[in-house]
Design brief:
The chain is built from 16 helices and 22 strands. Strand 19 and strand 20 form a beta hairpin.
Length: 486
């Protein structure tokens, strides 16, 4: 029985040995080969630190090689943005990364990166899904990996020198190395292990690393850099002695931050901090592109500094094209993905972490005080997200039913506030008269209903979350919630 392959917000992800199988990996690889059939440029292939990721990447390589593609293989775990930069720097036709990013350990996946180094757009995704279906039906071409390697069709490459050279064009690494900072890097057992330590090492700045060894089960943790999954890092920061904790997810394209007091700085706050740093301290100007799950603090900063802010559906397949179209300064999403002008139009959790460190140097004050300054500029903001996990069986039907119910019966009030506008292109987002908002949507990568809200106080946020959950007929089974931001 053919198992359909569907791409979510960024690539295809599935449970290992259930839907993520060698057979399906080969089918998607064949789809990539057909998609690039008339492009003579090489294809970059890499992987993260998940279970058997290197073996799955060899499957990708041997299918591509059998179809006449020259493969540049990164044969050790590497962050997705490092492999993506390889695509751009080495002028590849595209790239394939074996990773499930921040999904739980039982998942793996494939991300396809076009030649411009961003997420695959809607048209590309549709073409790959169609071609994968064809490969599942008609079969794939593959040669033994050893034969492809011996024949030179697969070549091992080291992506680090090119990536480090690119970072040096974005941030003053020498200044950071000699800034005397004390940084904690929570690598979360992911492919970003060693990167922050090596990049910032060699001067007066000291980097200590947590969970830098490879562990395909992620030590029982969920490799998403939010407070719930980083108790040890938060405890270390609370003890004092550090200026900053940089946390990265499983493939290091996302960023989590803990300040000098041990307070988790949620991703909406990080987005606003980065924007303020670029606009206020570095004097840069340009459009800001954000997903609909991110913060209206960016809109307030845009008004104050005279830059446009564009809101898109969730996913860098929407954010990246807008960044390229507008020459945007900065792009961001709620899950900790940040992209920057002059780099790839895609998340880079390593570079984002370096920018936060540079922010501390630029402002000449602790991160906790920079955050207080942000709230002086934009006013009080609070935020939280609830995740409701559902069984995989029946997930699609539940999504269809709930979307039909919200379409037919949208709320006109939430927690006593009047809904003044809404958008329904990616879930259902409701804007209230006091500038607060609430959103409910299905995850594009996991069987989850996610509920979000931003308002002026934590109490108001929880009221809005409860109200939209009641309207949706859900309430039990919350498995994760970000700490409200004050």
């Amino acid at each position: 029985m053919i198992q359909p392959v569907h791409f979510g917000t960024d690539g295809w992800r599935a449970v290992v040995a259930d839907d993520f199988t060698y057979e399906n990996v080969r089918a998607v690889s064949q789809a990539v080969a057909w998609y690039l059939e008339h492009d003579p440029r090489p294809v970059a292939v890499g992987h993260d630190s998940r279970y058997c990721a290197e073996l799955f990447s060899q499957e990708v390589a041997r299918v591509l090689a059998a179809n006449g593609k020259h493969v540049l293989l990164v044969d050790t775990p590497a962050p997705t943005p490092v492999i993506t930069w390889t695509v751009v720097k080495r002028r590849c036709a595209g790239g394939v990364v074996v990773t499930a990013s921040h999904n739980p350990p039982e998942f793996n996946g494939l991300k396809y990166k076009p030649d411009y180094g961003g997420s695959a757009g809607v048209a590309v995704v549709e073409a790959l899904e169609h071609l994968t279906e064809r490969a599942q039906r008609d079969g794939v071409r593959a040669v033994p990996y050893a034969e492809a390697f011996a024949g030179g069709d697969v070549v091992i490459v080291d992506p680090l020198p090119d990536y480090l050279a690119q970072l040096a064009t974005m941030v003053d690494l020498g200044r950071l190395r000699n800034a005397g900072l004390h940084v904690l890097h929570e690598a979360m057992f992911g492919s970003g292990a060693g990167y922050i330590k090596n990049i910032l090492g060699g001067g007066t700045t000291v980097v200590d690393e947590l969970h830098g060894e490879r562990n395909p089960t992620f030590g029982g943790m969920h490799p998403e850099p939010i407070d719930r999954y980083m108790p040890e890092a938060i405890a270390r920061m609370t003890e004092g002695g550090y200026d900053l904790a940089i946390a990265n997810d499983g493939d290091a394209d996302r960023l989590g931050v803990i300040d000098d007091t041990g307070r988790f700085v949620n991703q909406l706050e990080v987005a606003a901090l980065l924007a303020m740093y670029f606009l206020e301290k570095r004097g840069l100007r340009g459009t800001i592109v954000r997903s609909l799950t991110t913060t209206n603090m960016l809109d307030k900063l845009g008004e104050q500094f005279g830059v446009d802010v564009i809101e898109t559906p969730v996913g860098f397949k929407f954010i990246g094209p807008e960044m390229s179209r507008t020459g945007a300064l900065f792009g961001c999403e709620e899950s900790g993905g940040f992209a920057f002008r002059g780099h790839i139009p895609e998340r880079d959790g390593i570079l984002a972490g370096l920018f936060v460190a540079d922010m501390i140097v630029e402002y000449g004050m602790p991160l906790s005080k920079i955050l207080a300054h942000l709230f002086e500029v934009v006013g009080p903001h609070a935020y939280a997200r609830h995740d409701h996990r559902l069984p995989r069986d029946g997930y699609a039907e539940r999504k269809t039913t709930m979307y039909s119910e919200f379409t037919a019966n949208p709320p006109t009030t939430l927690a006593g506030g009047t809904v003044v506008s809404s958008r329904t292109d990616d879930g259902f987002k409701y804007f209230l008269e006091d500038s607060s908002w609430a959103l409910i949507r299905f995850s594009g990568t996991e069987p989850l209903i996610r509920v979000y809200s931003e308002a002026s106080s934590p109490t108001r946020v929880e009221e809005l979350l409860a109200a939209i959950e009641v309207h949706a007929g859900i309430g039990a089974g919350v498995v994760a919630a970000t700490r409200p931001a004050h």
